[in-house]
Amino acid sequence: MTSLTQAPQTTPVTPPRPDRTARAVRGNRLARFTPYGLIGPALIAFAAVLGYPIVRLVWLSLQDFGPRSLFTGEAPFVGLENFTRVLGDSDFWFTLLRTLLVSVACVGGLMVIGFLLASLLMQVSAWARVMLSVCLVLVWAMPMVSATMIWRWLFEPQYGVLNWVITQLKVFGDFSAHDWFSSPSQALALIIALIVWKGLPFVALTLYAAMGQIPGDLYEAAALDGAGRWNVARHVTMPILAPVLAVLVLLEVIWSVNSFTPIWVLTQGGPDGGTTTLGVYSYLEAFTRNDYSGGAAIAIITVLLLAVLSVLYVRRLFAQDEAVV
């Protein structure tokens, strides 16, 4: 008896077509450079608008540019002398500390009140939500100069509305001629309140939009477990809002440090420099004392401090995300 062994049948492999392989390679290359193409126009616009001013500011900080240079056009190169002089000035360090305190107070107030307003928007009825949103948008749309002038009128010593209201209440005594801007602490408190009031719409509406994306099932599960409002906010709402809060904190720190208009219109850094922050200090150094190079050096130091703070803050956020994963 003869046994026949049949060889296994194999399906022939068709080699890929050259044109298909070339298209796949081109597709991979296109996908690799797509992100750069998307951010390219923004980078070009950023470089065109801010590139030259930043380069000019850096070069100005390395020169001895004073009133004489405006007429002669000559500004000798002095290297890091302006930075050494600024960092050796005690006024700069007091101003830096004051700027940090103002920023911490502004960002803390914005985050707390903004979170409360966003929670309120989630709880109220539709018409109340619309009215509150309209009020917030109107506050945001008002120019800072106009808002500061109104703020100054509210606290004006002789004809201010707030002084009249406090006097009519007859609780704190006669405030009919009280000057809020004669005391550095009171003036600084008014500036912080103005910055917080003007920045609330952005924070509150951003948090409200983020809260609207949280699934309702999480709140229902927390309610079934008997969690109160504080525990729900701490263990459900805050962890989900953490990325949004991180971005808001970073943006508000930058905007608070760079606040110039409310301080200049209200107090011009006074009284006795008690409300001077880095932005106002740079302006005073450049355009009041006519030390343009010193003002440029202060501006560069401010930018570097914000850049370092931003990098450290973002790296810490990424490190926390990796630890959680």
From TrEMBL:
The keyword Cell wall biogenesis/degradation does not apply. It is a multi-pass membrane protein. Residues 1-12 have a biased composition (Low complexity). GO terms for biological process: transmembrane transport. Residues 1-21 are annotated as: Disordered. Residues 96-313 form the ABC transmembrane type-1 domain. The chain crosses the membrane at residues 33-55, 92-118, 130-154, 187-211, 232-255, 292-314. Keywords: Cell membrane, Membrane, Transmembrane, Transmembrane helix, Transport. The keyword Transmembrane helix applies. SUPFAM superfamilies: MetI-like. GO terms for cellular component: plasma membrane. It is found in: Cell membrane. InterPro entries: MetI-like, MetI-like_sf, UgpAE/MalFG_permease. Belongs to the binding-protein-dependent transport system permease family. This is Carbohydrate ABC transporter membrane protein 1 (CUT1 family). It comes from Kribbella pratensis. The lineage of its organism: Bacteria, Bacillati, Actinomycetota, Actinomycetes, Propionibacteriales.
